[in-house]
Every structure is written in structure tokens, then in C-alpha cells.
Model the fold of this input.
Amino acid sequence: MASIAAQVQETPAEMHAKLEPPAKKARVTLASSHAIEVPAERNILTRLQKGEVILGDGGFVFALEKRGYVKAGPWTPEAVCEHPEAVKQLHREFMRSGSDVMQTFTFYASDDKLSNRGNDAGAKFTCRGINEAACDIAREVAKEGDDLNVMVAGGVCQTPTYLSGGGKEAVMNVVREQLACFTEKRVDFMIAEYFEHIEECEWSIEACLETGLPVAANMCIGPEGDLHGHSVEECAIRMAKAGAHIIGVNCHFDPFVSLEAMKKVKKGLEQCGMLDKVFMMVQPLAFMTPDAQKQGFIDLPEFPFGLEPRICTRWDMHRFAREAYDIGVRYIGGCCGFEPYHIRACAEELSEERGRRPLAGAKWIPGAGGLEMHTKPWVRARATKEYWCGLNVASGRPCCPSQSKPMNWGVTQGDKILQQQGDATSEQELKKLQSMLK
Done:
């Protein structure tokens, strides 16, 4: 297929001429950093400095879409207002599985995304309403785990404003609207994640630092680097120099591709002498993506409704957690596809290093020991970790290929086709896009 980018060229000047610059909105003022004092037991940096291995949670967007609470397409988190009990229960399951962090379900909860392409979530619930509800839910569940010192992290991510060519102040203002809620609700630290471009990541880090809270930053990139051609090493260095305290990658790639990227993150930090000044984190997909190219899993033809055959097993997660730990990653979690049992596998694998097992471990005998109680002798024979870790699992689909051919449209920020809008996608626009698939 010819590059889609070649079909939709437009100069930056033409793009900016069509944009109503959000930067002209009043600058959002955040609460004073002195107003937020995080107790030591909930201070992410204090715990990491003491050598603790922190476990994050999993992928709320995909998990709740499968449960019927999130709309595929916009992937926005108004479920915190519409179905708070569903969100609360998923938080609770991750906590029982070993998660030390309840990350607010605020992915794509920026004002511009909530009203993008016909989405009415912003009009119905408002950016502030969604972010406040998400904070309340996360804190309520975290308090259920007071004995575990569960932390609450506010979350921000990439914005349609940046994809449409908005400048630094415009993008930072969008992020600040969310941050105002997080400071008022007194989250314990911030996570700026899911950035395809280092420039936007740097701007979001800068905004998050205005809160006075510890800041973790993740880019959704693989070993090839960001979508503007910056290497993983360069991205790592720039995230660290921007002031992020914890840096890494999340989403878009499977655990093992992500760990290859993390090796480059580590290399970049070593090169600039900052490896001992920041901590590393990783929160990958729970889908195997060895065939994904630079854009990651969203370029695969199975995205988003045909990914189930690629789901990682819990034994893949044992391996992932161990390999992440071995390269020096001390904040380990998951993104899209990660269910609570995936986090439980990470917690079980690192139980000795963490000095504890997850609450859900009460229903799990390490090494698949529970199978010793099975009625069938051949199943009882499988009651070893070695059996499961050595198993080459089948898909059960006789004609299913082992890998796919990514679409490779070749577009990114700066291309006309990625310019966002408030109006719903028209039939004419949709037909044009569908013709490009042929």
C-alpha cells in the first residue's frame, strides 16, 4: 500500500490556520505544591528509594469495554460517572491481585478528547466531573487497602490538541485542566503516559511538575523510538532531563518487545549519567505483538476487536516480571489487555523480592499446586511451574497465521489526516478512509 501520508500532505501553516488556538484560553492555575504533603508510606519515591518493587495495575479501557462499560472508538472514561461500581470493582480486583497503585481511570479524560469527533461525554459529564469522580473512586478503593499502603496516581495522556498541531501552551493548558482536579483531590503522584512523541511528553511532564508531586512518565514506543524519528535512548534522556522521576514505556507493544525498549531506556540513562537519578517503569500490553512495527498494535489488522488470540498467559507474565526486575525496572504494571490475574502472576513471581504475596494468593497455590487436587490424573501431573512455563500454547485455530501484516499507514502528528475535530466523522470522510484500506 502506498503511504497514506503521501495522499494527505498539508503544510504546518495550513493546519494552524484552521485551528482555533486553545492557548488563548485562560491559563489554568494549579494549587500550591506546598499544599500537598504525601505521607511517607504513600510516597512513591520514598518506597522506590528503599528498594521496594512497586506493582501497577492493568488496562481499564479494554477491560471495561469488554464488560460493556466503555465505548470502543473514543475509549473515554465516563464510566466513572455512569457506572462507578464497575470501575470500583475492577480497581478492587487489581488491588487484591497485588497492585500497589490505584491509577485514576482518567485515560483520555482531557477536555478536547471528551468532545472529539462527536463524543458527548464532555457535554454530559464535563472534564472536571469525570476526573473528580475517578479520583474519588480510586481513593475509596485504596483506603480498603490501608494495611497495604496502596497509593493513588492521577493519570494524563496524549491529546487531540497536540495531534492537530497545537503548540506548547495550548497542550499544557489542556493537561492543566485535569491536573487541577488531581491536586484538589490530593493524589499521591502523577503518571503522564501514552505519548507517541517526545515533545508532547516533555510538555506534559513540565505541566505535571507544577503540582509539586512526584511524576512518572511513559511513552508508548517500541525499540524503534517515537513517531517523529527520535530514538528510545534520546526519549529516555529527554524525559529524565524534563524532570520526570520515573520513566519508561507503556502500551502499544507486548511485554518482551517493551523490555527490549527498556534496555534502550537504560542505555540512554547510562549514557547521560542519570541512571542513578531516576527509576524505571514498564506497563506493556498483555497481547503478543512480535509483528507490530513502529506504530505498535494499533497498526495490526486485528486492532481492536480481533486481539484475543494474542493474549498473554499468566506464565508469560511470570517471565515478564522476572526479566523486568533483572534489568533494573522497579515499577512493573500493565496496560491494554492486562487483567487482574496478569498482575497476580507478576506479584507471585516477585513475592520473595516484595516480601509478600497478593491477597488473591489465598486462592492460588504457587507453581500451579492447586492442580494436585484435580480429579483427573493427567491434570494432576501438570502441577508444576516447569510444565506451564515450558508449554508451547496453541491457538486452536487451524488456519490462523502466527503473525499479521501491519497496515503501516505512515501518518503521525503533523499530517492532515490526524487533525481532530468536534464534529462527528461524516459518511464522506468514512468512505474516503475505507477506500484507503483497499
